[in-house]
Amino acid sequence: MRAVVGSNCKGDSGTCPGGERKMMPIGPLMIEHRLIEQMVKVMAAELPKMEDKRGARIGFLSEAIDFIRTYADRCHHGKEEDILFRDLAGKPLEPEEGKTMKDLVAEHIYARKVVSRLADAKDRYARTQKEGFEEIVACLKELVGFYPSHIEKEDKHFFLPCMTYFRPEEKDAMLREFWEFDRNLIHEKYRKMVEGYKR
User: Fold this and answer.
1) Which of 37, 75, 121, 167 is the most exposed place for a label (fewest CB within 10 A)?
2) What CATH number is attached to the domain comprising 76?
3) Is residue 40 within 8 Å of 144, Cβ to Cβ?
4) pTM listed for this prediction
5) Residues 6+ apart with CB under 8 A from 132
């Protein structure tokens, strides 16, 4: 499926006056899905190496945890929950779509818990080079199994239908808020890091 889907302009062609195409708010979310899928494949490829060697690379685990927490969760899920879902909550959603949105939020919470378990296991393994290894493998397998189905649910069963609830000007405003969210994200990440050292 193309990352740029639909248009905020009228007409079946999806073109605006002047011939340009306008990205809908779900466009950036679907682009982010493609990168998350790539990282999930990297994690999947790492698993058999870990199991064969009975060992884990701490650097890889740290980077995987940072990617999921910062990119997949705070950046991607953040835009979904803080902007898209927030705005959808004010719309008269069909019961099935309302249930799907609640399910997606629950899945985000589940993924956060798995990543927290992974981070704890990684820290234990870093100290002992043994303890926590089985939990690391289990958590990676959970994440590798989780993300493809989660992404498919959003891409193929939720994103396009939910756009029908928004007027073109609402979609434009949402897209602008997405860009602003992303611009502020790096500042938020490192402000929290510095504040952590000051405690």
Assistant:
1) 167
2) 1.20.120.520
3) yes
4) 0.85
5) 120, 121, 122, 123, 124, 125
Q: Is residue 17 part of a domain?
A: no
pLDDT band at 21 (very low <50, low <70, confident <90, very high): low
**193 Cβ contact list (under 8 Å, min separation 6):** none
Among residues 124, 122, 102, which one has the least CA distance to residue 114? 122
Looking from the CA of 31 toward its CB, the CA atoms found within 13 Å total 11
The answer to whether position 101 is within a domain reads yes
Q: Torsions phi, psi of 15, nearest 5?
A: -105, 150
For 26, residues 6+ apart whose C-beta sits below 8 A from its C-beta are: 5, 6, 84, 159, 160, 162, 163
Has residue 164 got a pLDDT over 70?
yes
**How many other β-carbons are positioned within 10 Å of the β-carbon of residue 36?**
19
pLDDT at 122 over 50: yes
Distances (CA, A) of 146 to 80, 90, 139, 143, 182: 17, 29, 10, 5, 24
Tell me, yes or no, whether 102 lies in a domain.
yes
Question: What pLDDT sits at residue 10?
Answer: 41
- Whether residue 19 is predicted with pLDDT greater than 70 in this model: the reply is no
Domain that holds residue 154: 26-193
- Residue 189: which pLDDT band, with cuts at 50, 70 and 90? confident
Domain count for the chain: 1
For residue 187, being part of any structural domain is answered with yes
Q: pLDDT category, 96, cuts 50, 70, 90?
A: very high
Q: How far apart are CA 196 and CA 191, in angstroms?
A: 9
